[in-house]
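[09:14] KT: can someone run the structure on this one? pasting the chain below
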Amino acid sequence: MEAYQNHLHTKVLGNVVLYSEVIPTTMTLFEGFMFQVEENVGTVAIATRMTQGKGRGGNAWISPIGCAMFSVHVRIPIQSNLGQRLPYLQHIASAAVVEAVSSLDGYENIDLRLKWPNDIYYGDKMKLGGVIVNSCCWENKFHAIIGCGFNVNNSDPTICINDLVARYNHECDTNLLPLTRELLIARTLTYIERIIENFQLYGKDSFLPIYYKHWLHSGMQVHLEKEDGPEVEIVGLDDMGFLAVKNQSGQVVSVQPDGNSFDMMKNLLVTKARP
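[09:31] RB: done, structure tokens below
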């Protein structure tokens, strides 16, 4: 835990740690107490392995050893900049993971990207992490549980951050050290809190440059639903945090993340089939 404590620079988030070697999922640990804890308690649940990890839309999240996995409790006043635009929270969390790496000296060019709505990618090639947010309302606040998992030191099932560091060292003749799960979890929590604070003070315009710096989709032409479906141009995130696209008549419309997904291989925005 020393690396975690050394790299955690928050006022609240992550100051109380619940740790388990193996657990079904960290997302459900907060159900019994999150409405009772004091405002100065920012609980994070960290696991080495999860046996029933969940992704967006009920997808299973594979969690081998070497993957950083945590859930953190965040309180957002309803009558606040972020409380009025809560969908931005998943974008903030995924951007914080990338910032946790790219803000380290020497690691700025490690090719981590953001795929809408909540995935962390190596370039536009492979997924290596993701975010899920569950929230409920209690006494004028949203209580959100941010669940996050990203591959740090496990090359399977896809690729991991330390694979990218090793590849960068080989290609650029550098000697960057491998990163640890503890360091990256602490830095991610630090950036989540910092970005939320700025969002609350200055609105979404304080966050969007960070997000767009890393995301994959600016100006991309995609089809809706099927390969011969209507073509639209991705504009960015709208005021609520939904995906804004421009159709062929020039009208900008919003696509909500719930129930929709981005197929990178086929350049499609598709509705996910529900069980």
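[09:33] KT: thanks! The first strand starts at residue 13 and ends at 23.
[09:34] RB: yep, looked fine to me
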